[in-house]
Amino acid sequence: MSNSQQTAEQFLVWLKGQIPLLNHMGFGDPAYDGRSLTLSAALAPNVNDKGTGFGGSLATLATLCGWAMVTLYLREQGRDCDVMIRDSQLKYLAPVTGDFTAITVLPEQAELDTFMSYMDSKGRGRLNLEVEIRQGDKVAMTLSGAYVAVERQP
């Protein structure tokens, strides 16, 4: 198991202690390689009255995936930050009829360098991420989100 993967699993355990709702969403083990993050969830605890994935659960998993990616990235850079979503746009493309995943990838290095430059000079920065909710290979929802990080004060 890589250090990144071990860090992601420890992070998810910690996170479930911080946000009780997450204990009820049927999460599987995260997959994290330092560049991309995949979070999975079971359909059963996230089903709506039509027998498909509840839109709020899809939005929660997508938002969490982006938030976790920024938080994990900053921790790997030795940063202790508060991370929050500033704004997002969701697009529901297809119903989810089975277990599903959220997947995000860090942006190109130039964007990461700009983000870290703001963190260095201002103690805060913004990073835009794209997150996909997939059922198998099918993209069911997308989230375009701006995440803000603020350096914690000692």
TrEMBL record:
Query: By its UniProt entry, which NCBIfam families does this protein fall under?
Result: yiiD_Cterm
The Thioesterase putative domain covers which part of the protein? 15-150
The molecule here is called Thioesterase domain-containing protein
Q: Does the keyword Transmembrane helix apply?
A: yes
Q: Which domain of life is it from?
A: Bacteria
Recite the UniProt keywords alphabetically: Membrane, Transmembrane, Transmembrane helix
Which taxonomic lineage is given here? Bacteria, Pseudomonadati, Pseudomonadota, Gammaproteobacteria, Oceanospirillales
Q: Where are the transmembrane segments?
A: 54-74
Asked whether the UniProt record includes Ribonucleoprotein among its keywords, one would answer no
